[in-house]
Amino acid sequence: MAERNPPDIKRGHGKNRGGTSGKVADFRYKRPSRPDKRPKKQGGASRKAKPRGDNPFEEQISASTPQFSRGRKQAYAALDLGTNNCRLLIARPSGENFTVIDAFSRVVRLGEGLAASGRLSDEAMERTLAALHVCAEKLRRRHVHLARSVATEACRRAANGPKFIERVRKETGIVLDIISAQEEARLAVLGCHILLEDGEGPAVIFDIGGGSTELVLVEPSGAVPRILDWMSVPWGVVSLTDTITGSDDSEELRLDRYRRMRKTVLDSFRPFAQRIRDFAEGEHPIRLLGTSGTVTTLASLHLELPQYDRQAVDGLILPSQAMRDISYKLSHMSGDDRRQLPCIGDDRANLVVAGCAILESILDIWPSEQLGVADRGIREGILRSLMAADATGERSRAALQRMREQDV
């Protein structure tokens, strides 16, 4: 369900419950250009994805459509409430791309304890509502023209998920749509597929979330890839961490837990791997593109960044073995040692190991030499969908108006 207006300013929450907001982003979302120099790190050379063809929204807008906008200045918003994070992007059209004018991201851990109880806890809901109040204020302040807010695996699985969605609507005015796993996968593909490495044959785009992982087999064809098959498994960094428990007291115990995580995920991926085996064994090896905090965090460690830098990471193509090497090191380290690493910190120190287990399982099934990294996904897919659909609607309304004027 799309929200056609920002939340009513009178439907707020009274006093401020939101705390500080996330860092504001002000940059253009466009295809990354290839850098002049390719950094060489562990495991081989890394490089940026080559610029690709254009409009990724064949379903909503034809490839011949020149632009999203003809001078429109409206702001559009996309909010993604996941199992671990609450993220918001607000942007304006800019040709066939868009410029982000405001952004917010906060770790809310909405799915904390969900695996054991089957419900969203009171503490998790309060944390999430505090973040959503910040989002609601940004939507009002930016005079958002059209927005879509989605909730994913945590709200899909929780017995009290729908009740929480209604509470969010009443307290913040934000109308969250609990989307299916299939819709989640489709939006992720729409948001990031332009970063696929050039090549022949199919590719797998994967999204390691907090509560689930989506795998999508796509065949590049024209402006938008054709989805050949897809699968969603209920293992993300939060759900896998909460389900496969273990001690951090010794390296042996840490590795035992890691092996159990790997086996659990591999068993879940096996039906999908069997279904697409013919593609994997074809003439051209399957290319891989990952969109998630796991792959962007590991890419940051590979580049030895002192702090996270989206421009350095988004669109990076690096050796898969480099990601395996980093996963190996992280799975051996204690939680305290992981917390000391740049780009991980307290929020990801415990969850990143589960992400490594999921990533290594994907690399086991499809041993591609290279791995593409995307710091974009569902929100970008939503934004482009909204802008494309709105532009199409404008053209239809304009054409209808011209017909009426001619009749007169």
What would a concise description of this structure say?
It contains 15 helices and 16 strands. By secondary structure, it is of the alpha+beta class.
Give a topology summary:
Elements: E1 2-3, E2 28-29, E3 40-41, E4 44-45, E5 47-48, E6 75-81, E7 85-94, E8 97-107, H1 114-117, H2 122-141, E9 144-151, H3 153-157, H4 161-172, E10 176-178, H5 181-192, E11 203-208, E12 213-219, E13 226-233, H6 237-243, H7 251-275, H8 277-280, E14 287-291, H9 293-303, H10 310-313, E15 316-319, H11 320-332, H12 335-339, H13 345-349, H14 351-365, E16 370-374, H15 378-407
Parallel strand pairs: 6-9, 9-10, 11-14, 14-16
Antiparallel strand pairs: 1-9, 2-8, 3-4, 5-15, 6-7, 7-8, 11-12, 12-13, 15-16
Question: Which terms would index this structure?
Answer:
single chain; 408 residues; alpha+beta; Nucleotidyltransferase, domain 5; 2 domains; seven-stranded mixed sheet; 15 helices; 42% helix; globular
